[in-house]
Design a protein that fits this description.
With about 200 residues, the chain is mostly beta strands. It is built from one helix and 16 strands. About 5% of the residues lie in helices and about 50% in strands. It is globular and about 45 Å long.
């Protein structure tokens, strides 16, 4: 399985990480058992480890992991109770969010709670140490089907955000995720992220 990648940046003030989640063995059924607290230098709220290629929570997925077999996935309960986030824990001053791959899947009440194709919008909001908004970026994703999977989509955070601000995902203390689903007859959508690239600045 691929290892996480780490590389000191040119100015030696930060370390570049590519977090792939493939060095853990998730429970195949109960997502709560797989809750991510801290992984590869960053802290998490509202995410669990999942084997994407084996299905999320025992359900087949309409996309393939960017780095097989695992990804980090939001849980339905966490999305309903608040925004999932990645943040700088006790060992970091802040971090730059460089890029990640995203995918979405939907559970539909009308079809007996099975994994379906999903169209979703994901809004990423970066916050500074003062909890003030630094960046907002919205991206869309359309999944395939369990038998005709799509690739996860790369999101690049190094360009301009939705308000025209350049490079504003640098030096963030946290990044929140809000998922909105426009598919019909659905009760909720889960977001999967993989190969999260960050530059982390230790205290």
């Amino acid at each position: 399985m691929p290892a996480n990648e780490r590389q000191t940046t040119d100015n030696n003030s930060g370390v570049r990480h590519v977090s792939k989640y493939d060095d853990v063995t998730p429970n195949p059924v109960v997502g709560a058992i797989n809750t991510i607290e801290t992984y590869d230098g960053l802290s998490y709220d509202g995410f669990s480890y999942s084997n994407i290629d084996g299905g999320i929570g025992g359900l087949s997925t309409p996309f393939s992991a960017a780095s097989t077999p695992n990804a980090a996935v939001t849980s339905f309960g966490n999305q309903l109770s608040g925004s999932p986030r990645i943040f700088a824990g006790s060992t970091l001053k802040n971090f730059d969010l460089v890029g990640m791959y995203i995918g979405c899947r939907t559970v539909a009440l009308a079809t007996g709670a099975v994994s379906l194709t999903a169209f979703c919008k994901v809004t990423f909001t970066g916050y500074g140490a003062d909890t003030q908004e630094k960046c907002v970026m919205t991206r869309q994703y359309s999944a395939g089907t369990a038998t005709d999977k799509t690739e996860m989509q790369l999101v690049d955070f190094t360009g301009k955000d939705d308000k025209g601000r350049s490079g504003c995902f640098k030096g963030v203390s946290s990044v929140g995720f809000v998922v909105s689903d426009t598919s019909t007859l659905t009760i909720t959508t889960a977001l999967a992220i993989d190969s999260v690239t960050s530059i982390q600045y230790p205290k």
